[in-house]
Description:
Blueprint: E1 2-6, H1 10-23, E2 28-33, H2 36-46, E3 50-53, E4 56-57, E5 60-61, H3 62-68, E6 76-81, H4 87-92, E7 97-100, H5 105-127
Parallel strand pairs: 1-2, 1-3, 3-6, 6-7
Antiparallel strand pairs: 4-5
Helix pairs in contact: 2-3
Amino acid sequence: MKTLIIDDEQPSREALRHYLGKYCPSVTVVGEADGVTAALESIRQHKPELLFLDIEMPFGNGFDLLEKLPTNHQLEVVFVTAYEQYALRALRMSAAHYLLKPVDIDDLIGAVAKVEAHDFIAGLKTSE
C-alpha cells in the first residue's frame, strides 16, 4: 500500500517510517512531507493510497490539506498527532484511524489492519 508520511517534525517522520518498515510489511512509504504545500505536491506525484497525517503544522494543518485534495482522489487517512481534541473532527472527516504520539506499535499495526480490511471490503463491493 503506497503511503505518505506528512509531519512537520523530522524525528516523528523517521520514527513512523521505521515502525512501518519493521511492523507493517504491506506498507510502502513512497514519500514524506513537512507541510501542506509539500504534501499536496507529493500526493500529486506519488498518488498514495494511505496518508499518515499530523494535524498541527506551520502554515496550515492536516484538515486544511484534506480540504484541498481533489474530490476524485481516493485515499485513507490515519491521523498521527499529539492532540486528543481533534479526534471527533477527524472522525467526521472519515479518518480511518487516529493515533496519538508517541505512537504505540500495537495501535499502529491495528490502524494498518483496519485500512487493509476496509480496502478489501471496498474491493469486493466494486467487483460485484
